[in-house]
Amino acid sequence: MENYDITIIGGGPAGLTSAIYATRSLRKVALVEKGVPGGQIATTDLIENYPGFPEGISGPELMQRFEEQAKKFGTDFLNLFNVSEISLEDNMKIVRSTDGRSIISKAVIIATGQNPRKLGVPGESEFTGRGVSYCATCDGAFFKGKKVAVVGGGNSAIQEALYLTRFADSVTVIHRRDQLRADRILQERAFKNEKIQFLWNSVVSEIRGDQLLRSIVVKNVQTGEQKEVELHGVFIYIGYEPNTDFLKGFLELDENGYIITDEKLQTSIPGVFACGDVRKNALKQVSVAVGEGAVAAMSAEQYLDELENKNI
Length: 312
Hints:
Helix 1 (about 15-25) runs parallel beside helix 2 (about 60-70), helix 1 runs parallel beside helix 6 (about 285-310) and helix 4 (about 155-165) runs parallel beside helix 5. The protein has two domains: about 1-115 and about 240-310, FAD/NAD(P)-binding domain (3-Layer(bba) Sandwich); about 130-235, 3-Layer(bba) Sandwich (FAD/NAD(P)-binding domain). The two termini are about 25 Å apart. The strands form four sheets. Strands 1, 2, 3, 4, 5, 6 and 17 form a seven-stranded mixed beta sheet that branches. The chain has a five-stranded parallel beta sheet with strand order 8-15-9-10-11. Strands 12-13-14 form a three-stranded antiparallel beta sheet, with no helix packed on it. It has six helices and 17 strands. The chain is of the alpha/beta class.
């Protein structure tokens, strides 16, 4: 069991920023990630609102730069480390993975982010990877010349609908309300794009197919009328759920499963901090995650200083 000053769980923008700040403070830092670093933002085709990039930058490129910077200062990256639990042993925190590995450290920063919410309708799980997707950047190229739908009306849904027009012949946006929630600039682009159509006041009630997805059933929420729409793919963007299942019973979460912290981003357990999309906050944006990552690292540094001074 290797010892560190700080263990960071999650390699998205919040976790990577924490790693940069913590290692620059000459702390021994491990960053554990169940996949590869980058988080949800690594699946985003274009980021236009991150300061310093007036022409925009792709999510994968931005996250690669974050990772390189964290490595430059000495962060130890442990990929394919799927955390199963955190436990306490006096002032030490033990982070265990599902494959039996464990790390011990004085402080922990949780930056596990969130995952796309599922529709929960018949056919969704059966056709995931066979027509149902939650990542247009990952899967859009498979639908060249085909008909697809995007479910949702927020920024993610409309950004990905616009991206899919590069490949698909048509993109139908299905939204349960009669107007979009996306930023006005994205709405204007979508309304002007000839490949994008809209089904308002509608939800997907079933997904059908054989070996591959062939159609979806769409229900009008006002009239109750249902109709079958033939297409080849459906991309789902109806919100997110925090990656906090491994924390239930360990620290305080809100009613939706997001981590509750104080202004220093400390959780209900001293020495355990949280930042980014996994934390209960008002805005889920890269710039917010970066700022919180810095705060969490500096708060962890202060906690370690106080802990070490007690032991002198």
